[in-house]
Amino acid sequence: MAMKEYDKEELTQTISTEELIHHFRNEEEVSGYCRKCENFGRSWGCPPFDFDVEDRLKQYNEVLLVATKITLKEQGLPLNAAQELILPERRRIDKRLLELEKEHSGLACSYVGKCYYCAEESCSRVCGLPCRHPHLVRPSLEAYGFDVALISQELFGIKLRWGKDGLLPEYLVIVCAIFYNAPETPPHSTNS
Questions:
Q1: Which of 70, 84, 130, 146 has the maximum number of C-beta atoms within 10 A of its C-beta?
Q2: Range of 153's domain?
């Protein structure tokens, strides 16, 4: 399949972890969607987890959210073209967030869609084995119970669109984040 052309716009927003959890985490509703997914319990990037998500996230006081809007130059593409369009952006974003994670001793949530580190249906979780790529795999915001549609709308002013009649919408949106601890006091300016 030939690479589809698109324009991209990237927006960022910083918010406190407490505020993100309070306003945008709806674990009960979102986990209901996760339980209906074929990857539930079959991928290390998907729930259920063997840790308390909220306890893990509350170790960090700030969140840098990144929204990437992918506007298609060609309309009328089939729904199955979505991964082809998202994958290059996801690889770019994953790499960037993993670098920021190391730099700021944070936790990157950069997963969008299926894990691509193992071939389809070969995740070691299915066999009860540890993840082969724990240094790379990060759960999505959805996997942690966040309402990404609400985050996209309220923090970035982008309403998520859904495909219909087997066709992609006019744009796709990827929302990911890095949780980190911001300094108690802002750095001092070197300018007088």
A1: 146
A2: 6-178
